[in-house]
Design brief:
By secondary structure, this protein is α/β, with parallel strands linked by helices. It has a single domain (15-269), classed as Rossmann fold, CATH 3.40.50. It is 36% helix and 24% strand. The longest helix has 16 residues, at 233-248. It is globular, with a radius of gyration of 19 Å.
Amino acid sequence: MSQPSGVISLEQDTPELARAYEQAGIVQFHHGKFLIGPLALKAGEHVLDIGTGTGRLAEFVAGLVGPQGRVVGIDPLESRIEIARLRQSETLTFETGRAEDLSRFGDGEFDAVYLNSVLHWIAEKGRALREIHRVLKPGGRLGLNVQDPSRPHQSRQLLRAAIVQAGLGDAHRDSNPVLGVTDDKLKSLFTAAGFIDYRSDLRSLIDLHRDVDTVLRWSEASAFGNFLDGFSNAERDRVSTAFAELVEANRIPEGLRLERYLRFAFARKAPSSNS
């Protein structure tokens, strides 16, 4: 069943999608590395990865904070955490959990928190940011990247065009909405949660995919099974065929070149904060 606008069901995720995400997740991993750099992580720091998925980026971060550091990755999807736990070590652990409820962690427990392409999936964004603020140490840093609905990914634009081309534009006008947060809204959410020194920029990133099947598999896995939610099997086939034709126009010798837009935002908890 299709979800209300702005709400994504996690119930449609499967172990097969989790494995597909792990295989194709190198795309998300590279985006995450752009996120980690400005956090300036230091050896010995404690870091929380919210929406860790299968843990690839958290494993990278564990190498940055070293043997005296600690990284915890949480994700609401058990099938993805099961894969992440294959990466577990003395300094890297994974648990099921949601950003809106970090009650398992004490106040001021982490030096840094990050969310790699996660915030747009969270319904209660303000509550999540307040929880993040609480578990950060005074002066602790927050970094995230998020879709900006004012600049949809190229694949999303092509999908909408494919739906129209398949003759389903009227029937599915509100299907697959572009989730995300504008800069003004994001700044407001950060400020309301108590963060200071907010800064953000919208970046254009290039994804290279081997073929259309790879694009579709990644789209389905990264959306937890909600890709083309509400479409019948016959309609999915029609849209996929039209989508394949449109995507192929972006083929270069290295593969299918698709542009992705993400807003990268950073802030910190005030050094003197006691909350």
